[in-house]
Description:
Layout: E1 2-7, H1 16-27, E2 32-37, E3 40-43, H2 47-52, E4 60-66, H3 70-82
Antiparallel strand pairs: 1-4, 2-3, 2-4
Amino acid sequence: MISRDVTIKNNVGLHARPATFFIQKANSYRSSIWVEREDRRVNAKSLLGVLSLGIVKGTTITLIADGADETEALDGLAALIDTGFNE
Length: 87
């Protein structure tokens, strides 16, 4: 199991369209992946879970992955967040 802190840079945070892109990317990996904000942890492959965290621009979240492709998963998700979801 590995984790990485990332800061959301796009203007709307992880809402609607960016959250959908994030979940699609998370679902492309075999590993179990979670998003943690403060004291809450949700499945990164669940749209409702991710939206329930209310992640806005400037929020630092922790990505956690556990599985065969955990490093690849965190690298891919962190890269997606770093691009600002191409907004």
